[in-house]
Structure formats: structure tokens, C-alpha cells
Inverse folding.
């Protein structure tokens, strides 16, 4: 097994997904309460999961903060359309925040809620190879 692959490690009371670099340093991806979830995440990160092979393309999502009135900050999650210069609003805060940073942090949380699997990022649905042809 290559030293650069993601591995599962246990340190009471949590399971970790760790990558050891040739330099001897290590990077921890995340920790998990159970071994099964950690093992599946490591497999996805290593490209060994069925999900990573069948997932659609990576979605282009972003967060920005709007200030329609001075001191009233709103987060907005948006996605690039097929025309990369056009962005479509996906979700936005209903209430204003007092600071730009607080609005941005809450927007980042909203963005993360859209990601089913952080190991492979936000994915658009893949094409169904078993679907009937169109036309």
C-alpha cells in the first residue's frame, strides 16, 4: 500500500481518516464515531468506491455576501449555469446579519448542507446508463 493513500486509524474514542506523506508528516481528513463510515470515506478518497466512480460532475457552487442596506448583510449560495458567466441563486438568508463575517460563515454552513458527501464534493446527478434513449 502506498504511503500517500488515505488510511483509517483509531484513537480512543474516534476513528480517523489519515494520509501519511513521504516526508513523514500526516494529514487528518476527518474523524468519525464508527469504523464503517471512516472506511467508506477512505475508500472514496482513494477512488475505490462505487459512488466515486458513478457520481456526476462536480457542481460549481459559491457563497457571497450581499449588503443591500448599510450594515445589513445577507449570505447567498449560488451555482454556475452552463454559461460560466451566469450564476443562479440556490438559497439565501432571510434575515440580515450584523457583520459580513457572520453572514459569510452562515452561508458556508448552508453550502455544506448541500453536499451529501464531503469526500467527493457537491455532485450533479450522473447520467443513468440504463435509461431509455432520448429522441
Amino acid at each position: 500500500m502506498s504511503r500517500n493513500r488515505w488510511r483509517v486509524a483509531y484513537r480512543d474514542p474516534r476513528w480517523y481518516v489519515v494520509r501519511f506523506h513521504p516526508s513523514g508528516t500526516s494529514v487528518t481528513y476527518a474523524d468519525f464515531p464508527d469504523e464503517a463510515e471512516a472506511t467508506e470515506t477512505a475508500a472514496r478518497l482513494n477512488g475505490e468506491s462505487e459512488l466515486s466512480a458513478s457520481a456526476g460532475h462536480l457542481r460549481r457552487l459559491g457563497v457571497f455576501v450581499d449588503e443591500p442596506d448599510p450594515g445589513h448583510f445577507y449570505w447567498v449560495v449560488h451555482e454556475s449555469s452552463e454559461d460560466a458567466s451566469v450564476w443562479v441563486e440556490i438559497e439565501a438568508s432571510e434575515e440580515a446579519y450584523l457583520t459580513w463575517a457572520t453572514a459569510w460563515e452562515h452561508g458556508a454552513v448552508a453550502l455544506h448542507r448541500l453536499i451529501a458527501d464531503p469526500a467527493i464534493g457537491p455532485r450533479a446527478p450522473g447520467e443513468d446508463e440504463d435509461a431509455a434513449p432520448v429522441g
